[in-house]
Amino acid sequence: MTSATDTGIDASGATRAAADATAAAAPSAASRREQEIRAELANNPQALQALDRLVAGLDAYALDDARRVQALDDFMAAPNAATAAYVEGRIAQALGEDFAAAHALVSPDAGTLTIGGQVYSIDHGALLDADGRQAGTITNDGVVRLDGEEQARNVYTDLSARVQLRETIDGELSTLLDLHPADRRGRLDDANVNRQFADRVKDTLVRARQEGMAMQMDLVYRTFAHQDQLYAQGRTEPGQRVTNARGGQSWHNYGLGADVVFSTPAGQPSWPEDGNWTRYGEIAEAQGLTWGGRWQNPDRPHVEYHPGFGASDAGDFIATHGRDGLEGVWDRMDIGQQP
């Protein structure tokens, strides 16, 4: 029998070489993280485009694997084009790259912001009031700091904020983020809407905004009488049929159903066929909501909340509602309002 020694091969060296080859072939932690992100954002093409931009930007820097993973994690806090610019800019700053170029990535070059009832224009990260005076700053991660306020604001978690962030790319101003108010009429704060449900819908809207999806509330609470009017449409009244649910048979009637739609560039409600409906549904389901897009007859804007009960069980609460009102329904479901 011929041994490794007989042939002049160092067995331990061969083992090390094989291990090195295996390590070289194995994907890095950053590569694995990138693929995880791509899988999560598969139904949001705009977010994937932003990720592509970030990855291309990161390739220009000498980053170790850990720092690259951190950059990808930072991007996932709000995966959109503005965040991609911000993350790259922060890396450039940390590595001592050209300050002006790095600042241009961290802060938007132009745009507008309406927050707290005030309208500001944006000039290289500075917020200017109607008289052109600086009133604060904004960065491409969505953080707003107004002069005289200790607490920073955030354009994603403030559902009433209107923001447009623009950057100069290849000599032209391009819009990186464009969001309109998500609940301008305060429908989720209606006393007839269950708070646990409303909070889950708000969290859904926040995440949609973080992913660059301009969405807004269309309808939440609907009375039994209104439901009956809609049911009559296309049956005993003129118009097309819009619902198969009579009064008390829809979760809207108990403050546990809502319709969320997209916003046009002008801020009007829209039901686009090519909207990111599936990604919206995934976000809603992650918040524990039932998404109507999964139904046999899909209702893509619709979400509802009825833990422990099925989508078709709403009619079982008619008697409870008649006797004890909305609070009685919520108590029966163990989702009553917090004191």
TrEMBL record:
<protein>
    <submittedName>
        <fullName>M15 family metallopeptidase</fullName>
    </submittedName>
</protein>
<dbReference type="InterPro" id="IPR009045">
    <property type="entry name" value="Zn_M74/Hedgehog-like"/>
</dbReference>
<dbReference type="Pfam" id="PF13539">
    <property type="entry name" value="Peptidase_M15_4"/>
</dbReference>
<dbReference type="InterPro" id="IPR039561">
    <property type="entry name" value="Peptidase_M15C"/>
</dbReference>
<feature type="domain" description="Peptidase M15C">
    <location>
        <begin position="245"/>
        <end position="305"/>
    </location>
</feature>
